[in-house]
Amino acid sequence: MTNHITTKWLGGMAFESNNPSGLDLKIDAGPDSGGEGAGLRPKALMLSALAGCSGLDVASLIKKMKLEVDDFQIETIANLTDEHPKYYDKVMIEYHFHGSNLHEAKLQKTIDLSVEKYCGVMEMFRQFAELEIKTVFHHK
């Protein structure tokens, strides 16, 4: 199976990229790099892709395991190298669960399954970055 994405130059430093979902996203550099800051930054999008991919796994498993979670977010904190080409060499992925009836062991299992088995973007990141996974439970 292949993915085919078309990314079209809009002029200046702006681009528009399509997605199999049928939605388009705009990419632009910041004013410090000659852009208008009117779009998403490519490297940051990689972190959104990482969190989104793993988040979909976890959300699916929460549903499948009938776990009670009021709120759930993923904080992705990445270190960029100093030299060009700059890339993420260390990435911390923090999973935050909020609720009054959090089943910690089962929620941790959803993360472990995503990190170790299901998340393809996580596997791609493993090729170039050191990953640190952290889980935080916020009991109400």
The gist of it:
This is Putative redox protein. By secondary structure, the chain is α+β, with helices and mostly antiparallel strands.
Structural features, described:
The protein has 2 domains: 40 residues; 98 residues, GMP Synthetase, Chain A, domain 3 (2-Layer Sandwich). Helices cover 32% and strands 31% of the residues. The protein is built from 3 helices and 6 strands. Strands 1-2-3 form a 3-stranded antiparallel β-sheet, with no helix packed on it. Helix 1 packs across helix 2 and helix 1 crosses helix 3. The N and C termini lie far apart (44 Å). The model has no long low-confidence stretch (mean pLDDT 97).
* Number of discrete domains: 2
Q: Quick one: CATH superfamily of the largest domain?
A: K homology (KH) domain
Helical coverage, percent range: 25-40%
* Overall average residue pLDDT: 97
Task: Compute the number of strand runs.
Answer: 6
Instruction: Please report which band the strand proportion falls in: under 5%, 5-15%, 15-25%, 25-35%, 35-45% or over 45%.
Output: 25-35%
Give the overall silhouette.
globular
Major beta sheet summary = 3 strands, antiparallel
Q: Compute the separation of the termini in Å.
A: 44 Å
By CATH, the topology of the largest domain is GMP Synthetase, Chain A, domain 3
Low-confidence runs of at least 5 consecutive residues: none
Order of helices and strands: EEEHEEHHE
Structural category is alpha+beta
Q: Architecture of the largest domain, CATH level 2?
A: 2-Layer Sandwich
Strand neighbour order, sheet with most strands: 1-2-3
Please state the CA-atom Rg, rounded to the nearest Å.
17 Å
Q: How many individual helices?
A: 3
The CATH first-level class of the largest domain comes to Alpha Beta
